[in-house]
Amino acid sequence: MFRVPNENCQESVFELQCALIPGNSGASFSQYSQVQGVRGVTGGGWGFNVPSPALVAAYEAGDPRKDATIIFRGETTPEGDAIPLVGDNPMYNQKSYVPFSLYVNGYNEGCQQNIRVIRYAEVLLMNAEAANETGNTTLALTSLELVRARARGGSLTILPKVTTTDQSALRTAIYNERHVELAMEFDRYFDVIRQGRAAAIFGSRGWIANKNEVWPLPQSEIDLSAGLLTQNPGY
Question: In terms of pTM, does the model score above 0.90?
Answer without folding.
Answer: yes
